């Protein structure tokens, strides 16, 4: 039944959290529509994340799910054929690593972001 619903992912190319969700969808073989969002001119679909209006947002049917770690858990529960998270006690280690990336690595990425350039353009 989960596979019958249309899956859409709202994201932006510069978000590592969007890539995390895209990878999870690919690993599970889940077909989805990717919608690139301009965060400076937010589209009405970002109303699907009314609290933050940030990406990623996964829309399964008409039901939005936001925050990459929550989306990964949703994917595991909705499409259990290829679980992303290990079973038993190893799940705690995987959750720790995910939380560490969310809380620590994210700050480092955003701290160095102003100095990143692609093809001669500096993105801020």
UniProtKB/TrEMBL annotation:
Protein keywords: Transferase
Gene3D superfamilies xref list: Glutaredoxin
Every GST N-terminal domain range: 5-83
Root EC class: transferase
A single Gene Ontology CC term: cytoplasm
Record-level GO BP terms: glutathione metabolic process
Molecular function GO terms recorded: glutathione transferase activity
Catalyzed reactions per annotation: RX + glutathione = an S-substituted glutathione + a halide anion + H(+)
Family of the protein in this entry: Belongs to the GST superfamily. Tau family.
Protein name: glutathione transferase
């Amino acid at each position: 039944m989960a596979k019958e619903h249309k899956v859409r992912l709202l994201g932006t190319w510069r978000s590592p959290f969007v890539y995390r969700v895209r990878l999870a969808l690919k690993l599970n073989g889940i077909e989805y529509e990717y919608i690139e969002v301009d965060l400076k001119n937010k589209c009405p679909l970002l109303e699907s994340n009314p609290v933050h209006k940030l990406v990623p947002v996964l829309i399964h049917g008409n039901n939005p799910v936001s925050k990459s770690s929550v989306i990964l858990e949703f994917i595991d529960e909705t499409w259990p054929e290829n679980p992303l998270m290990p079973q038993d006690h190893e799940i705690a280690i995987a959750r720790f690593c995910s939380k560490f990336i969310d809380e620590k690595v994210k700050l480092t990425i955003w701290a160095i972001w102003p100095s990143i350039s692609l093809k001669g353009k500096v993105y801020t």
